[in-house]
Amino acid sequence: MQTSTVSEWDLSCLGPVIAGLPTSSFFSGCLLGGLVLATLADSSLGRKNLLVISCLMMSLSAFFTAFSPNIWIYSVLRFITGFGRATIGTCALVLSTEIVGKSRRDKVGIIGFIFFTLGFLSLPAMAYFTRGSSWRVLYVLTSVPAVIYSVIVHFMVHESPRWLMVQGRKEEAITTLRSIASPDSYGSDNNVQLIISLSGISIEMEQWNADLYSAIKILWDKKWAFRRLSAVMVVSFGVGMMYYGIPLGVGNLASSLYLSVTLNALSELPSSLITYFLIGRLKRRSSMLFFTMLSGICSIMCVIIHEGQPVLRIGVELLSFFSTCTAFDVLLIYTLELFPTCVRNSALSMVRQALVFGGVFSPILIAAERGVDDNGFLSYGVFGLVICVCGLFTVCLPETRGEIICDTMDEEEEKAKISTIKASDNKGALVVPHV
């Protein structure tokens, strides 16, 4: 019985490109899935329906992966799994933050990251306890929870009232708001009007949002939106290369692969917890710049530190991954606050695809490094340089901490104008805003 795909199909003898094909196929599927499915949550399907469909696609393709007869079918199924998985995190994050108020929005988003980390922690545990079994068993075990999750979301989770309002489905939005409102808000004749007033949602449907890719088009046409999206996607690319690359390459720094993966997962948990308690105080722009620089510097240090100091190398690598995870968490919350409801899911999906696009290069660099004695430069050295350069683009973005989130492009533009006037009044001169 073969316990891994590498031993079953002799991948180590086929070269780095074929050996990294399944992982790269997965990330390529994530990239394409995000581009194809991204605007469905902003246009026709909504957040909840796309979340359920994507979860089912991912879980079923993962289940069938367990029966792959060769590396080629395996890679195709990994591509489909990535395609379905692409929008799950985006839809879940947007949906959860759009049904709460401003004071809880950032913390609710971080809670999702904490549960993601707990799921990450469960993987090395399952791999360890099934280490004597075929790799196919692990695929079956990991596909079942997503099916259960899809059922729970379908029957127990409400659609975003903000999205319903923007789509002109006012009655459904009001019904949803009534169902999630505090019981104390009931009993008055003006109950519905009070709920709508507190929600701050515009009841006018966006006229341009008429077809599948209108959200992408408006992000492209609006100069301020394009500048924001371009800058945050560049930052996301660098974070993604580090975030997905370090767990793949950490086995090169320690003797135990299970221990290495577990340590990385454990470093992600405190990152999410610290971000949860500090997100309300962290300035988005400066914190992103700090954590990307720290992550890059620590990654480069992994190359400089001699191989005879494995404990120090692992410690620095863990600090690098911790900083990357924190930057990852802040980046997604930051993106939520940069764009209005009508394009939020599309914008966040594109940012996540930039993350995945960075991850596409990670397995190739890791595989290429195994045949070269360069002390980790092709992986950790390149990762560190890329995230440092990409992190500098954060200075092009506006600060969003404590700001209200808008529902339409016009509201976002009006908010930017008000911010410009306030800045001008405070400093006595016209200040051009970061848009």
From TrEMBL:
Keywords: Membrane, Transmembrane, Transmembrane helix. Coiled coil: none annotated. It comes from the Eukaryota. It is found in: Membrane. One of its GO terms (molecular function) is transmembrane transporter activity. This is Major facilitator superfamily (MFS) profile domain-containing protein. It is a multi-pass membrane protein. The chain crosses the membrane at residues 17-38, 50-67, 73-96, 108-129, 135-157, 229-246, 258-279, 288-306, 318-339, 351-368, 380-397. One of its GO terms (cellular component) is membrane. Pfam families: Sugar_tr (PF00083). It comes from Papaver nudicaule. Residues 1-402 form the Major facilitator superfamily (MFS) profile domain.
